[in-house]
Design a protein that fits this description.
This protein is an alpha/beta fold. An 11-stranded mixed β-sheet has the order 1-8-2-3-7-4-6-5-9-10-11, sandwiched between helices. It has a 5-stranded parallel β-sheet with strand order 14-13-15-12-16, with helices on both faces. The radius of gyration is 20 Å and the shape is globular. Bound molecules: threonylcarbamoyladenylate and magnesium ion (MG). Threonylcarbamoyladenylate binds next to strand 5 and strand 6.
């Protein structure tokens, strides 16, 4: 299959291009499109065969449910068994935006879309191209991140093309995404709402709107026994091909440790990549050093993370040493992705 890459300007959307993309989705095909978090791989969420094509294109395990993207709150009510009061409150506060809510689904949503679960994850993205595509496609687009299963999520259309070229008919290229890590997922089917995946919308932001909210213990646990509730969070994910090790601690010690590790690795013939910050980049004497941004600029750290992991893959790096970024606001989300990319290898100095 030939993959068409179509540039689209978010501030002057070419309706003809979106209509062509929507026609593919209405006919059961796949289109990759930009959202404010990461690029998505979209299909008609109400069409079981279309959803099945997503799993095939990504090489995704079939028990890992998809997020249903909508453009109108009333469309969520049509696929939910019932609407918890918190859903309306959170939608008013954060939709359209980087928040996914899980509710009990009704039988309008095929089991192929929900990975066999009786709950459904719903999100209203804020990206204008995504919203226009959803509206023109019939209102419900199932979309995981548009990467091959196990690779870092795409933050540029070029990343999507790396993974999906020849597998899907069309990629809408809206340029770099704004946020760079996937949406926060909150499960509203429990008595106390629970965050299953941390993201740009933090626990505190959710608590301000709906009161008590907890974090899935499976997310914070460092043991391998406590399982996360979101099926997708249990897989080694977001991962570069290289071995990755995080180094956490006071800056001086971190730089020293990474320099020593990099020397050992290079001495044994390995190609080394280092994820530094603007503040520390000049202090690494070897390896391919990349700055993720200024240490205080958490938005930049989130936005650059996946691109850097992919670039190290392209340069055939064998081992990546990374500083750690437990920053105040979205630090928990950033560290969650980094720890998974590193398969939980972290050295505290
Ligand atoms: O920002 C995002 O959410 C992006 C963009 C494209 O919207 N999408 C995304 O989808 O990250 P995906 O498929 O890569 O991640 C969805 C996560 C998986 O971990 C999956 O297991 C979980 O959501 N999930 C989906 N439905 C669920 C459900 N009913 N119950 C529990 N977890 C669910
Ligand atoms: Mg994903």
């Amino acid at each position: 299959m030939k993959t068409e890459l179509k540039k689209i300007d978010s501030s002057h959307i070419d309706e003809d291009i979106v209509e062509r993309a929507a026609a593919i989705i209405r006919a059961g095909g796949l289109v990759a499109f930009p959202t404010e978090t990461v690029y998505g791989l979209g299909a008609d969420a109400l069409n079981a065969e279309a959803s099945a094509r997503i799993y095939a294109a990504k090489g995704r395990p079939s028990d890992n449910p998809l997020i249903v993207h909508i453009a109108d709150f009333a469309d969520m009510e049509r696929i939910a068994e019932y609407m918890p009061a918190a859903a309306r409150l959170l939608a008013d506060a954060f939709w359209p935006g980087p928040l996914t809510m899980i509710v009990r689904g009704n039988d309008r949503i095929p089991r192929e879309t929900t990975g066999g679960m009786d709950t459904v994850a719903v999100r209203m993205p804020s990206h204008p191209v995504a919203l226009e595509l959803i509206r023109k496609s019939g209102g419900y687009i199932a979309a995981p991140s548009a990467n091959t299963s196990g690779r870092p999520s795409p933050t540029l259309a070029e990343h999507v093309a790396e993974d999906m070229d020849g597998r899907i008919p069309m990629i809408l290229d809206g340029g770099p995404v704004g946020i760079g890590i996937e949406s926060t997922i909150v499960d509203l089917t429990e008595k106390v709402p629970m965050v299953l995946r941390p993201g740009y919308i933090t626990l505190d932001m959710l608590k301000k709107i709906i009161g008590e909210v907890e974090m899935d213990p499976g997310i914070i646990a460092t043991d391998s026994v406590t399982r996360p509730k979101a099926p997708g969070m249990k897989y080694k994910h977001y991962a570069p091909r290289a071995d990755m090790i995080l180094v956490d601690g006071e800056e001086e010690k971190v730089v020293k440790t990474i320099n020593a590790l990099a020397k050992d690795a290079e001495d044994s013939g390995k190609k080394v990549g280092i994820i530094a910050t603007d503040e520390t980049r000049e202090r690494y004497g070897r390896g391919e050093v990349v700055s993720i941004g200024a240490r205080q600029d958490e938005d930049a750290i989130a936005r650059h993370l996946y691109r850097i992991l992919r670039e190290f893959d392209e340069r055939n790096v064998d081992v990546i040493y990374s500083e750690s970024f437990a920053t105040p606001r979205i630090g928990q989300a950033i560290m969650n992705r980094l720890l998974k990319a590193a398969g939980h290898q972290i050295i505290t100095v």
